[in-house]
Design goal:
The protein is mostly beta strands. It is built from no helices and eleven strands.
Length: 130
């Protein structure tokens, strides 16, 4: 099972947990959890006016081997208006636009989508329960 928690954070409410959303999915082949503005396909959705987040921005997908992968999906723009960073334990890395990375089995971490224009972010915590 992959469990996600998401908080949309602005400079005004940094540190607040109001508006936190949660979603989970079993670790079965092709299980998917999406994050973005399009509420019709995303289990975790951001405010409609947060245009630095694509309609479908992040995708967590489970492979045939039970490993979850995180993808920053390419949007309609050639250059994104955000940055995505992944933190697992002490390891931090930027996720390139359009890239996919495996998540550790039985691990936890955080994915942060930073707006390049304003001090706001989407913080998605994950926990893979095995």
């Amino acid at each position: 099972m992959l469990e996600l928690t998401m908080a949309a954070v602005t400079a005004a409410d940094a540190g607040a947990t109001a508006g936190m959303q949660m979603a989970d999915a079993p670790s079965e082949p092709d299980a998917v959890l999406r994050v973005g503005r399009d509420k019709s396909v995303c289990r975790l959705s951001t405010p409609d006016d947060w245009l630095f987040v694509s309609r479908v921005h992040l995708e967590f997908r489970c492979g045939a081997d039970g490993t979850w992968r995180l993808s920053w999906l390419r949007g309609s723009q050639a250059d994104p208006s955000s940055e995505v960073r992944l933190t697992i334990g002490e390891h931090r890395q930027a996720l390139p636009y359009g890239d996919t990375v495996p998540l550790p089995r039985g691990g936890s971490g955080e994915v942060v989508v930073h707006d390049r224009a304003e001090p706001r972010s989407v913080n998605v915590g994950f926990y893979h329960e095995v």
